[in-house]
Amino acid sequence: MGLLRQPTGDITQGVIWKQLLGFFFPLWFGTFFQQLYNTVDTLVVGRFVGKVALAAVGSTGVIVNLTVGIFTGLSAGAVVVIAQRFGARNWEDVHKAVHTTIFLGVLVGAFFMVAGFLLAPWALSAMGTTQDAMPGAVLYLRVYFLGMIPNVVYNMGTGVLRAIGDFRRPLYFLIAASVCNIVLDLLLVLVFHLDVAGVAIATICSQLLSAVLVVIALMRSQGAAYQLEPRQLRIYRGPMELILRIGVPSALQSVMYSASNIVIQSAINSFGTDTVAAWTAYGKMDVLFWMTVTAMAQSVTTFAGQNYGAGQYGRMKRGLWVSAGVLGLFTVAISAVFFFLARPILTIFTPDPAVLEVGVEMVRFLAPCYITYILIELLSGVIRGAGKSLVPMLIDVFGVCGLRLLWLFAVVPVHHTLPVVMASYPITWTVTTSALLLYYRFGKWLSPPKPAP
User: Fold this and answer.
1) I want to staple 275 with a disulfide (CB 3.0 to 4.6 A). Which of 182, 271, 313, 385 is the partner?
2) Torsion 331-336-341-343 (CA) sign
3) Residue 348: per-residue pLDDT
4) Do 313 and 307 meet the contact criterion of CB atoms below 8 Å apart?
């Protein structure tokens, strides 16, 4: 490949906490704009089109989140593979992994585009979508799936940038896409009266913009091993196998989380309208914690991947505990704010006294339990950074998802109270954290990387 310039995203040396925070904040703000992106679609159809359109767009949420989780999992595989080779200064393998990643994104996007377009009516019907909402939901979902290729390419492309330590440009691209989405939502719905179709078109146009920006950024990385050269796009067997080996378990883990959340929602629904409304309002608060955990977990995964590739195993482990300390401080602060200001924060989302009463009970029960979760994401991220994702996935699936489902089906029917339902969270988080700590301490996950095939 020739002589390449010194990379600017090297995190195999330097002050660990500064590097982690340097990654964390762009990721956190990126997630914020992603939430804004999704919220605007709902606001526009709800306020300017009507409740049937709102129900139509809302009915697609589970399917959209499921597909995004799959793409994010595959992207996590690409991040680890590229970060390891970047840390090892193996530029030839970086080049192969980057081109395999983007080409894989095109193939996966094409598959989901066709499958999603054809299966959208069946999937929505299987979920029990109401007759009134069905036509709009099918329309929205089919237009959404037409934009699958740029959607997946964006996820894979930002994975490449994160792997080499560039967390800022993905944030800028997401901000641009969010602004584009908001402008087109208003233009296509208010001016051209395209209603649900307009919101869907705005979504895929903004995804196309973000994908184009990522591809341009990679193509303009002159002299770097991660420079994208369209003529070099192909599947290289070695990187492909490793990306799938790490990415598929991560994607399956996301799918299982979605499944367990559906069952949790069913349990919440059994307590009536006030509880459902309170759970929805709490979810709007709760997203702040999940944004924070996810951003730090992605940061430590990239950090671990590069340092693993460079053979800096001690530094890799120090990164885990530094990230745990930083995230622990953030979590305690968030928990305290939620606990003491639960009522005024919930009032932003609902003024109903009965809903507020239940919502405050939820917040004050769950917020102090957040601290029991954070090591799940951080331990999984570090172990995944070493190229081992199957065992953390199995521990998470059986610990968080399996045990939670067992609790909901075996314990909740006997003790049908809201605190018993909510207890499934800290119990499963504590058990899963303990299992991951045992694997981290005694499992054979930290072995030298094998040469690429």
Assistant:
1) 271
2) positive
3) 82
4) yes
Structure tokens at 408: 């909901």
What are the percentages of helix, strand and coil residues in the chain, rounded to 5?
Answer: 80, 0, 20
- HEC string of 364-376 equals HHHHHHHHHCHHH
How much is the pTM? 0.83
From the CB of residue 444, how many other CB atoms can be counted at a distance below 10 Å? Answer: 8
CB 12 within 8 A of CB 83: no
Domain ranges of the chain: 16-235, 276-442
Distance CA 251, CA 397 (A): 11
Residue 240 contacts residue 93 (beta carbons within 8 Å): no
pLDDT of residue 4: 43
DSSP secondary-structure letter at 230? G
Quick one: which of 222, 164, 136, 121 has its CA closest to 8?
A: 164
State how far the alpha carbon of 379 is from the alpha carbons of 88, 151, 162, 368, 400, in Å.
22, 28, 19, 21, 14
Distance CA 237, CA 240 (A): 5
Chain Cα centroid distance, residue 227? 25
- Alpha-carbon distance of 216 to 218, in angstroms, equals 5
Q: How far apart are CA 407 and CA 386, in angstroms?
A: 32
Q: What does the block give as tokens for 410?
A: 């075996």
Q: How much is the pLDDT for 3?
A: 36
Q: What is the mean pLDDT of each run of 10 residues along the chain (453 residues)?
A: 48 89 89 76 78 77 83 90 92 95 97 96 82 90 96 94 90 92 93 92 95 96 89 94 91 80 78 80 86 92 91 93 96 96 88 88 95 95 90 89 89 90 94 95 79 49
| Token pair of 447 as six digits | 């072995």
Q: Residue 452's pLDDT is what? A: 47
- Spatial neighbors of 183 by CB under 8 A, at least 6 apart, are none
Residue 84, pLDDT score: 92
DSSP, res 414: T
Element (H or E) spanning 78, and its range? helix 61-87
Q: End-to-end alpha-carbon separation of the chain, Å?
A: 18
CB 55 within 8 A of CB 323: no
Res 6: pLDDT: 40
Q: What are phi and psi of 139, to 5 degrees?
A: -60, -50
CA distances from 54 to 124, 126, 133, 196, 414 (A): 15, 19, 8, 9, 36
Helix or strand holding residue 151 (H, E): helix 148-163
